[in-house]
């Protein structure tokens, strides 16, 4: 026969696991804390509602509240008990003793037994096994008189009163610092007259900045137009030597690219790094309103290019929104994708990336391992292989590259740009995840069933 307590724990954990699978929370620790805290609140409320009925039959639902005796000196003595955990979510745990008495508390006079209270943290007074009894003088009462309370309310913990209506869900137990960012509505941005700032940069400056940004993780995924808009929005800023450009702990909203000079970085007043021309710093400020992780000080006279978060996010969001609209219209005209729902088409549009090729460029090469599926947005391509020679010409709305992904084969043909070509690409994982019913259509239209080999 299974242990009831063990079975209860198993059932609770099983229910929690189901909730995690259903809700798929981003912060698993916070989710679990909220889950058990809500269960605790419901249980305590239920117990409180049954307290009066339980007392009529001699049951004590809150032993830590009423486990009080009157000694011969006329003082209440809270009996020693097993150590218990003090809830970090509030003060409503009836199994914890709290020092919130209205009257003065009498402490033991045996000094060598006393230990100073240790404050702070959510585990304050958690496991004080040797805690001495606390005494509070009260008036002597007749124990035979049921109309008189055995102890005054002031000698009870907060559980002598009904529980608070709601235990706080969120709490801070020295957890990581949170980050936030402004909420932007792309549809609203579209209706506004906002225009990104444009600074007159020379072609040399634009080229230099583009090279500095091409490997930066924030800018690698931007399409060509968005990159140009971001570069044009950069503002030049000068900092004399020893100027604090950013300070650790401050909220940051600017990203910097160093044009000339050297910048030193300090964490907790200790120098950790230096950067010079072409380097960048403050990337996280473009995404989140988060505290600076380090202090940046100009080690010499420094000239930087700066971009603020709101401008970057509006450019990025507007570009993404425009790309979605463009691709949704484009995908509607591709016959093989007509089986997709509007929602699936929108998800596919968000996953597509744009690539550009010039005349003579080989977009895919026969024999190579295939990683992408291609849709032609504009331009013309020719398809050929060593066995058949020229196979066919592809134009706007045509697609290629699906065979390597459907059959996990090397490329069966080479696709070459006949002029300037723009293609929308979808990676292997996105191809398998987002195309859904369109995959079956692609299989039915497998060109290897005829003389055409893609």
TrEMBL record:
| SUPFAM superfamilies found in the cross-reference section | cAMP-binding domain-like, Dimerization-anchoring domain of cAMP-dependent PK regulatory subunit
**Can you list the GO cellular component terms from the UniProt entry?**
cAMP-dependent protein kinase complex; cytosol; nucleus
Q: Where is the composition biased (Basic and acidic residues)?
A: 95-115
**Is the keyword Phosphoprotein assigned to this protein?**
yes
The positions annotated for binding 3',5'-cyclic AMP 2 are: 402, 411
Alphabetical list of Pfam families matching this protein: cNMP_binding (PF00027), RIIa (PF02197)
Residues noted as binding 3',5'-cyclic AMP 1 in the record, renumbered to the chain: 283, 292
Report quaternary structure and partners: Tetramer, composed of 2 regulatory (R) and 2 catalytic (C) subunits. In the presence of cAMP it dissociates into 2 active monomeric C subunits and an R dimer.
Q: What is the name listed in the Swiss-Prot or TrEMBL entry for this protein?
A: cAMP-dependent protein kinase regulatory subunit
Q: What is the lineage of its organism?
A: Eukaryota, Fungi, Dikarya, Ascomycota, Saccharomycotina
């Amino acid at each position: 026969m299974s242990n009831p307590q063990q079975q209860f724990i198993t059932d609770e954990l099983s229910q929690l696991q189901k909730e995690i699978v259903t809700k798929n929370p981003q912060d698993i620790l916070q989710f679990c804390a909220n889950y058990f805290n809500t269960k605790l609140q419901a249980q305590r409320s239920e117990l409180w509602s049954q307290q009066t009925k339980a007392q009529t039959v001699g049951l004590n639902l809150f032993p830590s509240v009423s486990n009080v005796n009157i000694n011969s000196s006329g003082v209440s003595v809270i009996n020693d008990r097993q150590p218990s955990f003090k809830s970090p979510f509030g003060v409503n745990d009836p199994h914890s003793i709290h020092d919130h008495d209205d009257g003065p508390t009498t402490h033991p006079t045996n000094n060598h037994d006393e230990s100073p209270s240790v404050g702070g943290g959510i585990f304050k007074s958690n496991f004080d096994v040797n805690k001495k009894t606390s005494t509070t003088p009260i008036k002597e009462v007749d124990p035979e008189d049921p109309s008189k309370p055995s102890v005054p309310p002031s000698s009870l913990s907060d559980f002598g009163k009904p529980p608070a209506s709601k235990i706080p869900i969120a709490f801070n137990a020295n957890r990581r610092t949170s980050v936030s960012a402004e909420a932007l509505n792309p549809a609203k941005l579209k209706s506004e007259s906002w225009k990104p700032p444009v600074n007159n940069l020379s072609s040399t400056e634009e080229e230099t900045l583009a090279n500095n940004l091409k490997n930066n993780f924030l800018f690698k995924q931007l399409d060509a137009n968005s990159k140009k808009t971001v570069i044009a929005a950069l503002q030049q800023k000068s900092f004399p030597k020893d100027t604090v450009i950013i300070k650790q702990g401050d909220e940051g909203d600017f990203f910097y690219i160093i044009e000339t000079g050297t910048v030193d970085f300090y964490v907790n007043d200790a120098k950790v790094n230096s950067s010079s021309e072409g380097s960048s710093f403050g990337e996280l400020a473009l995404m989140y309103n988060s505290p600076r992780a380090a202090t940046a000080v100009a080690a010499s006279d420094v000239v930087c290019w700066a971009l603020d978060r709101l401008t970057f996010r509006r450019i990025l969001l507007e570009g993404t929104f425009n790309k979605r609209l463009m691709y949704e219209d484009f995908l509607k005209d591709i016959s093989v994708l007509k089986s997709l729902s509007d929602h699936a088409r929108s998800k596919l549009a968000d996953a597509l990336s744009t690539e550009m090729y010039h005349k003579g460029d080989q977009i895919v090469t026969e024999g190579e391992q295939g990683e992408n599926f291609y849709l032609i947005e504009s331009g013309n391509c020719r398809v050929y292989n060593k066995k058949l020679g020229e196979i066919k010409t592809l134009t706007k709305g045509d697609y290629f590259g699906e065979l390597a992904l459907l059959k996990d084969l090397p490329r069966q043909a080479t696709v070459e740009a006949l002029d300037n070509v723009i293609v929308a690409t979808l990676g292997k994982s996105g191809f398998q995840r987002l195309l859904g019913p369109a995959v079956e259509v692609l299989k039915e239209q497998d060109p290897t069933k005829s003389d055409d080999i893609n």
